[in-house]
Design brief:
6 strands; six-stranded antiparallel beta sheet; single chain; SH3 type barrels; 17% helix; 84 residues; alpha+beta
């Protein structure tokens, strides 16, 4: 696990995070990358419940809890004046 990283499932709703690693099966990793969820991307966690909803630019993606456990993130500060 990268230093300072934690599972996406543990991030609070409304926070910005940077993806540090995806620890899933190769086909799942490939599919997530195709959707834009890859290392160094900054996303906003919109909803944190049993499942999570995150926003990448203008796209909202729903992820199951088990998959959210496999995506490691670190806190990120949004740029002033911009809502990524």
């Amino acid at each position: 696990m990268p230093p300072g990283a934690f599972p996406l499932s543990q991030a609070a709703a409304g926070t910005w995070v940077r993806i540090k690693a995806v620890q899933a099966a190769p086909d799942v990793c490939r599919r997530l990358r195709e959707m834009g969820l890859c290392e160094d991307k900054v996303i906003k966690l919109v909803l944190q419940d049993r499942n999570v909803v995150c926003r990448l630019r203008n796209l909202r993606l729903g992820l199951g809890a088990k998959l959210a456990d496999r995506i490691l993130v670190e806190p990120e500060q949004p740029k002033k004046g911009k809502d990524r």
